[in-house]
Amino acid sequence: MFGYIKPHQPELKVRELDAYKAVYCGMCGQLGKSYGAFARLSLSYDFTFLSVLHYAVSTHTPSLAPCRCPYNPLRKKRPMCRPDKVLEFSADVAAIMLYYKLRDNLQDSRGAWRLAWYALLPFAKRAWKRAAKALPLAEQAVSQSIARQNEVEKSSSAGVDAACEPSAAALSAICALLADGEGQRRVLARLGYLVGRFVYLCDALDDLEKDKRSGNYNPFLARAAALGQRGGEPELRIEARESLYMTIGEIAKTFELLDIHTFRPILENIVYLGFRATVDEILRKKEQAK
Amino acid sequence: MTNPYQVLGISPTASDEEVKTAYRDLARKYHPDNYQGNPLSDLATRKMQEINEAYDTIMADRRGGGNGGGARGQNGGAHGQAGGGGNSQFADIRRLINGGRVTEAEELLDGVPKHARDAEWYFLKGSVYYTRGWLDDAYECFAQASGMDPGNREYGAALNQLNWQRQTGRVPRSQSYGGGSCSVCDMCAGLMCADCCCECMGGDLCSCC
User: Fold this and answer.
1) pTM
2) Apex CA A121: angle with CA A43 and CA A152, to 5°?
3) How far apart (Å, rounded) are the C-alpha atoms in residues A85 and B61?
4) Which has the least CB within 10 A, A241, B18, B138, B141?
5) Residue B165 contacts A, CB cutoff 8 Å
6) Residue B45 — φ and ψ, nearest 5°?
7) Contacts of residue B104, Cβ cutoff 8 Å, sequence gap at least 6
């Protein structure tokens, strides 16, 4: 995951932002506690979202305590979620994904970067082993999705939907683990599927120009090639935006069926505003770069 | 039993007007039309029932045991699944899709020879994709179905819904969130949407388009 799932901060109330930051800091603390200081590097908005969602659908309420940030000791103490089951779950998922991400980076990069990834790999592997033991189902879902992603990207005939499938299915399986009833499990599975699809498509839109230059696989380029379109990048971007917006609308519809106990305003902000703001921000940056 | 005020997300001291507004907003959100063909439509129906019951309870309470009514009525709750009209040649496939068995449905659909693939075939193929979360392919299929049979309401509604999402990133008919103000653009977009809805029901709101 890549930090595409975040609230649209200008529309959050101050206390909602504080609560969100408390989960974010709690996530960082939990990563440090579970897997050591290096694991804090994998801290991201996406796993914070996973924790917020988890709190929202479970009856477990986070316990807050004022804490000092070890990386910014001059800042005054801020409320932070204490390590608990919910944060531990997200940290384990983060550790699993970090390991595969590092392996992927190692394959794709050259020179100094390759050396850096190589140096981090043993730490990541140790964390991954422990996390895989704690969450065997999540590890299975992620490892399968990596294998299937490689297959999809090799076959040139795959459409946009088929390209999203592995990432979406992995997040669907992970989100389904958060549920405690059959109805909620179905909602969370579809929500996870759609959010995974959103993240994958966002990444594809982000890398559109880079992939065009390097010739790497990109679902939007592949779709245009399959349809025999020789349209320029502006058309590609509009099509990508429409696919993303459609996914966001579907996420909202699914989200509305979720039984939520806490953090409703934060989740509503992410679903109704944050996702769209992320897409618009990516497109705005592209416009400016011209 | 759950507190009816909690179901509507309001405090017990809310005025009658606030109760009605909360009810209307929620009823619009969970309206069966929004979840037509959705694999989770049964859950939306249940939500709608809860809201209806909560509203009735509150209104009956406030009128000292009298019957509820007022805002409620037109949003009568479950419409049930997509009809699957009398002369459907794919009735069995529709049943499979409504029952959530999309893999079997897709196998049967793929077995239909190319020359027999009519508008309904594309609509059902789109429904399979939609259930699975393959939104882009679903959109293509709904567009194809609508193009082959422009007068069909069912195909038109499915296409319009995804089209609205593609343009706005929002759910059709859900209340505005965030800003809250209604700009000229919103009014035009609303009018356009209303026109589309009228047209797919066979009427016309703006004669110019």
Assistant:
1) 0.86
2) 80
3) 42
4) B18
5) yes
6) -60, -40
7) B96
Name the residue in chain A with its Cα closest to that of B168.
Answer: A245
Closest residue in B to A193 (Cα) is B133
Phi, psi (degrees; rounded to nearest 5) at A157: -80, -10
| Cα of A168 to nearest chain B Cα, Å | 9
Residue B202 has pLDDT above 70, yes or no: no
pLDDT, residue B77, reads 40
The ipTM, to two decimals, is 0.89
The tens digit of pLDDT for each residue in A197-226 reads 999 999 999 999 988 888 888 999 988 888
Buried residues in A166-179 as b, exposed as e (16+ CB within 10 A): bbbbbbbbbbbbbb
Regions in chain A scoring below 50 on pLDDT? 1
Locate B113 and state its tokens.
Answer: 């020879």
Hey, where are the domains in chain A? 9-288
> pLDDT tens, A17-71?
999 999 999 999 999 999 988 888 889 999 999 999 999 999 888 999 998 888 8
Backbone angles phi, psi at A116, to 5 degrees: -65, -45
* CA–CA separation, A36 and A134 (whole Å): 17
DSSP, collapsed to helix, strand or coil, labels residue A66 as strand
Average of per-residue pLDDT values in chain A: 91
- Residue B100: closest C-alpha in chain A: A186
Report domain A9-288's class.
mainly alpha
B129 in contact with A at a CB cutoff of 8 Å? yes
Half-sphere exposure of A117 (CA within 13 A, CB side): 17
A interface test, pick of B135, B161, B162, B174 with most A CB neighbours within 10 Å: B135
pLDDT confidence of B83, banded at 50, 70, 90?
very low
